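Journal club side-thread
Mid-discussion, someone asked how the predicted structure for our own chain would compare to the paper's figures. Pasting it here so we can look after the session.
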Amino acid sequence: NYWQLALGLFLGLSLSELDHGFGLIRSPTPTHTLQESKEASDADPVLESAPCPRNDFVPQVFDFVKDMQCHSDLSVPPQLKQDGRGKVFVNVGLFTGDEFFTAINSSYSAYGFEPNPTSLALLRKRCEDVPNGKCRYIDPDGDVQLPLPPLPGVGYLVGAGGSSKKGYFNLSMAGPTSSFVEDPSDLLRYKAEVRPVPLVRVDEWVDTDVFLYMLDVQGMEFEVLKGSTKLFNTRKVKTMIFELYPRGLGFAGVNYTEFMNFIWDDLGFFCSSSLAPFPTHKGFPDKTPNTWDGFIQFLTEYTPRIMGFHGALGIFDDMFCFNRRVPWEERLYKF
């Protein structure tokens, strides 16, 4: 099917075809990654290129992730529109909730976490009217028995964000955006409002195998993933999409070497950039280093520069990640 074809095309490509990919595709020990690449090419034939090739990027990745120029639907990965019975979707940072509600309507078991009170109010209204499933709002301060059990076609809308520590933390909100780590009024012409909101550990709420883990948290990625470590290590999380936003990670004080090693070693994932480089959209510039050390150096040098600019988001990109601990044939055919 479409999903298997997209994964097969991506995983069948060699490292030489990932000239502009994200550095997490590489291991600190290159021979390890080359061995995995050989296993992939042995397992999967290299098929014809999918539509939408751009600047030597892996075009098949576009088929899975949000792509701003190839697909008419700009928000929802196609797999969330397919039959999700027996699959679990975790979404941290819902914003409008398009992916979350699409997953529920496709019979996924869905877990959504959103701390922004403005967004949460709109999401709760949508939660009341889900055509092909059920949505349950969960107050994190209420009497909740954890973990929440996965139920087909049922989505849990949790009124909290994700972090490595539980508690209330200040969220800075300005207009349509919010952040725990930077002042959004620096980017938009809105006056910022600061409110304390609840944060939770995702791995205390979710204890099941996960088909897709998706997060868009404006620089809090490392904290959210630290609070999901038990889930990744005791359950099978197969794929992940997260936004790599250097400006936000910089304000969060993230060390890129520590962050990338955490994703590779602690979570067991390798990742690739999903969007094309400039000038097509928002992704990393053409010729971005794809070596482990080179990419870390690029981010380390770029981040303080963009942090010094007012009113500029800088570059950011969706990262598409596979669980490298899962056998290749299972990555492809048993999702």
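Post-session note: The chain has a mean pLDDT of 76.
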